[in-house]
Amino acid sequence: MGVALQIGFLRLTGAPLNSVEMIPPQVLAHLGAELGIAPPRLASIRALYRRHRTLFEHQVAAKQALGLRDLTEHGERALNGFLRREAGDKFLVDELEQAARAWLRDHHYVQLPTRRLRSSASGARRHYDGGLLAGAVAAVGIEQTKAWPLELSETMPNGKTRLEWLRDSPASRKTKGLADHIAKIDFLKKLGADKLHLGLAAGTLKAQARSMLYRKPATLKRMRGERKTVEIACFLRLQLLRLTDDGLGMIDYRIADLWRQARTRAEAAVEDELRRHQALVLQLASLVDDENISASVVRDQMRTMLAPFLPAGAHGPSTKVGRVRRELATAGRGASELLRAASSISLDLPSTHPLAQALTTLDRVAASEMGRLPEGTPNPFGRTWAFLIDQPDREAAFGGYRAATLMLLKRSLRNGQASVDHSLEHRAPEDRLIPKAQWKKERARFVRNLAVSATPETTIRWIKDELSTALKAIDAAVSRGDIRIENNRLVVPKLKAAPEDERLKAIRRELFASVGKIQLPDLLIAIDATTHFSWALLGRTPRSEHELIILYAALIALGSDLTAADMARMTLNIEADAVGEMMRRIEANGRLPWANRLVLDHFRTLPVTKLWGGGIQASADMMSLDATRRLWTARHDPRRRTPAVGTYTHVLDQWVILHDQAVVLNRRQAGAAIEGALRHEAVDLHRVAVDTHGHTHFGMALANLVGFDLAPRLAGMNKRKLYLPRGLDVPASLRPIVSETVSTSAITRGWDPLLRIAASTKSGWCSATYVLDRFGSAARGDEAFQAGDAFGRLLLTRFLGAYLGDPAFRGMNDALLSQGESVHTLQRAIYSGPIGARHGRTPEQMAAISSGLTLLTNVIMTWNAVRIGEVRARRPNTFPDHHIMHIAPNAHEHINTKGVITIDVSPHRDRLLGGKPPAAGIRSVI
């Protein structure tokens, strides 16, 4: 029995059983039954092993039986080397400790005691930080590193310290805000931030700098040791990267704004020109009808009338875009300021790139102070700008040249041809992808990880077979009358809504009456007692009930429109300062996704969730949150007609939210849809339903290559075509809507760079959002883009075969998206007000708002699911499965989220505090 006990414990924990107060009777009974002997009723290790040598012999026998061995001196050196390498990707000592346990398990070593593992992890952390310190000192010099705290503590004329100034988000997108932003970048370069090439991944750099993002300026002078210099170095580098990205984003926004203003002026000019032409026609008609005027006088007067309408100087094409370009050429001062700002950021451009030539020409003209474009200046922009650049008026030609440079700058930033070394999102694409040397060496491994064919020929044969099947399915749907083709256009009738079941509505009311009403804090406490998400948020067990109460209040304030002051007014005996400090701690530690994962995992273990879905499909959509217009990331929401920011969520077909991310409005969301499906680890998704904003052809290809399919619900279906390569057998009924324009040779030429991009995305070298931004329409002409665009068009036709050919599949896909919108209804009930001016200014704050809202939403749905399961178990005949499967857990009418809040921890105190005694002087109910 002793040997069996040692083997079982070693198998479960990886460590030998040395001491325990008492061995559970259930364990003894199980061993006795397995071995066929009578077990003792009560036993301890001391009682079983009165002879210590026997304990040692049994432990050796257990190790031999399981193939485990003790860690040797050589093994310990290997473990330390592994931890030092892992320290570059894992910042927390806890993460390094878990990695060490996994390494010991994989190498068949017995697990070490926690204290020894933690010591090794801490040593690896110190060793890595020592390397960072040496790199920072080597880059900028010891004197500069010593001066950093003084420089950052310096008080500016506006009363803020340099540290607070650097942490502030842009105050405005206008000229003054951009100038202040460029001044911050110049100050960071003065401190040597552009030289701090620390070799850290973006996530590790953020983790290293996180404490400086929240540190009070007064504490800088009290910081001691190597840690201070490492934190400041990482902070300076991170802020330079972020400010560069924000600055280029402001320039991009301002260029788009100048284009919008030019378009407005062009449209107004067209309307004015139309009125003048109408008046001219009336004048000419009146002149022709006057019989008292001679023909020569009529001609003279007609010449006078027509003179203002005859072209003079630059008359360009009469197209709308040509008119807008002509108006943009008049944006003198604004355009010059943007180009100067872009030059100060130090763009990396090949000397032969047209933008480099254009910027050099503008600098030469600015130095001459002539304000005129010299005759014979070459046009690097193409024929579309020739009518403005080649005109006789050289001052106007200079304006046209400047406008063309602006638009080329915008395009080059989008497709990555213009890059910046000190940037997160605008580095050169080659710096973000798997290095070419590594790709050539390990291509086979990366392709196996993608689970796609390494050769384009195999993929083309596969997709052609799939397309033939899709064409047959669509042709059959046309024959059945499910869809029609009229006037060479596709007509897809709306699916009829299922008749509303009055009985189901009554059952739903009865079900939630049995569920009962509850306050939001009580709901949080009940779910936390099971999942311990509060432990994840704190990184430890709570020290007291009061700390838990403050944590719950801060979480509600983060995930709703309530402020810390609101929570203090609504809850007895807590201070707004304490709630605000806890909110900042939650933002700073970045543990909200971990807490969400705990709730998500618990939700999916509930039996009732199997009735709602299989857990392999999800919908992805954005929800806008109202915000003040002073918020830097706010954009105008065309639907709600207010400034807003976005949270992009992936909702599983079982209703729970898998992943969330903060996004900027009015941008294509295909990258966010792919990124969210890739980065969560809860389930293996096969399909993600998206709307039109979440779809691009390149996005369809990228999603397929990384392991799942995008299923878009497309707007303007009557204008859609079935994209095919030449040579397929197309049914006659589908000829009007078929476009045989896809080049398989483009897929063949760009297949290898396309696979490299997909492997880089899946392996985490770059984000899907970055890839979709860089390989959008601005990347036309790039081989990888052409291959991805062509492959994506074929995948869209393949998808339309199922979407159009099977009404049941179409209904299921549309229902997935409707399900996500229903979850957004719950989120709006939680976050009903706008984001204030002092919140949501930094990426960390926006991530905390988005994840906090997701956590509250998931907790509410988990509590509903638990209660639905309990009511269903008690009354299975009243609430049968075929009704429960149509009742969603996102109801919130029975939950009090506002008003006076009572937070009572006492019913679950032992489970929440890990069995700790009550803290003296702390009330259990506040």
TrEMBL record:
NCBIfam families: transpos_Tn3 (NF033527)
UniProt-listed InterPro entries: DUF4158 (IPR025296), Tn3-like_transpos (IPR047653), Tn3_Tnp_DDE_dom (IPR002513)
GO biological process: DNA transposition
Coiled coil: none
A Pfam entry, by short name: DDE_Tnp_Tn3
Boundaries of every DUF4158 domain copy: 2-110
Domain Tn3 transposase DDE per the UniProt entry, residue ranges: 522-899
Domain of life from the UniProt record: Bacteria
Keyword hit for Heme: no
The protein's name: Transposase
Keyword Nucleotidyltransferase: no
Entry similarity comment: Belongs to the transposase 7 family.
Keywords, alphabetical: DNA recombination, DNA-binding, Transposition
GO molecular function, one term: DNA binding
Originating organism: Sphingobium chungbukense
